[in-house]
Structure formats: structure tokens, C-alpha cells
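Please, structure for the following, as C-alpha cells.
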Amino acid sequence: MQEKALRLLSLLREALSEHPLLLELEEREREMTEDPLFPSLVKEKDEAGERYADSLRHKTGEKEAALRLIEARERLASLSSVVHCEECYRKVRSLYHSLDEILLEPYRR
């Protein structure tokens, strides 16, 4: 029984690796990471996050630091390559959620 389950899981993993949504997600992630603006916006967001954490530790300038962090996150999230990647990611999550319900939900009861 266990061997059969492992064989079937292997087949499922193989089928998923060839699924159009997962292939599209890989492509969107590649496009996002190759976007010339992406690294600088990630760096800006990370630095704003560090400044915000520092402001909380020192209890000074929290509001300004929080605003800068929000703005940096928004700039990153609004980059078209990030938007397309996020849209595709949501579809893949939905696929995985459906698989979870089909495969595992009967065992949770």
C-alpha cells in the first residue's frame, strides 16, 4: 500500500511539474527577477523595513519610517512584473488548495 501511494505521489509531482500554471509561474518569476527595477525596489523596501525596525527599537520617528516602508512596499507591489507574478501565484495557490481538499480533507475528519 505504501509503495503504491509513493508511486502515485511521484506521478502527481511529475504531472504538476508539467502543469501550465506552474510553468507560467516559473516564467513570471523569471521575468520579475530579470526586471531591471526589481532589485532596486526590493533593496529600497528592505532598507525601509530595517529603518522602521530601528525606529521601533529607539522609539523615535516610527510614523515617518512606517510611511516610508508602506510607500516602498507599494512601489514594489505596483511593478508590472510583480503584479503579473502575484496574479499567477494566486492561481497556483488555488490549484494547490483544490488538491489539498481532494487528497487530504477526507483524512481530517
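The chain is about 90% helix and 0% strand. The chain has two domains: 19-35+79-109, 36-78.
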